[in-house]
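We read letters as residues; the fold follows as tokens. A sample entry reads:
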Amino acid sequence: MTIDITELLRLEQAGWTSLCDGTGDAFYGRIMTENGVMVLADGSIRDRDGVVASLRDAPSWNSFEMTDERVVEMAPDTAALVYTGRAFRAAGGPAFVGAMTSVYVRQGDQWRLALYQQTPVPEAE
């Protein structure tokens, strides 16, 4: 069975949208697996509860872009969405650009986020 990138892209975009509109804590609390983790560009590793807590009062993003998206099928119900993300804070400043990987597992009829990892990519000058 081939995994359709469309549904995973929709979920990933919904996550970024939640980070822009201030609902990231609720979104990631709902979509992450019980033992899900995020490995962030600053070197921190957060479990689901830590992600939710950190997003409660986090500054919002203003906009985001996703490019070079691809899916790596790992098993029939597990896939990694890999892409380059560029996001801009609502408060201004330079863009955050990163190589991003989101590993999703299907639980029942729903995709859940098990692992998210971001690596900063320097902007080309």
The chain is about 25% helix and 50% strand. The longest strand covers residues 61-75. Helices lie at 5-21, 24-31, 48-56.
